[in-house]
Design a protein that fits this description.
Largest sheet: none
Shape: elongated
Order of helices and strands: HH
Helix content: over 70%
Radius of gyration: 16 Å
Distance between the termini: 20 Å
Oligomer: single chain
Length: about 60
């Protein structure tokens, strides 16, 4: 199986895993900054919201397994 075939079949899965991990990391940083450092980040909630919307759109377009 060629590399391009694997990328074609698994791209949405890998992209959704990456976006979910990115959203989790952004929210963890926000919680740390808010409760430990006592300084909230202004951009993290918006970024997490946009990632969530993109992830939802991507998941709705994926074929069921």
């Amino acid at each position: 199986m060629s590399i391009l075939r694997i990328i074609e079949e698994k791209f949405e899965l890998y992209l959704s895993i990456f976006l979910l991990c990115a959203m989790t990391i952004v929210m963890a940083i926000q919680v740390f900054m808010r409760y430990v450092v006592q300084h909230s980040l202004s951009w993290s909630e918006e970024l997490a919201r946009y990632i969530f919307v993109g992830l939802s759109s991507l998941q709705s377009a994926m074929e069921p397994r």
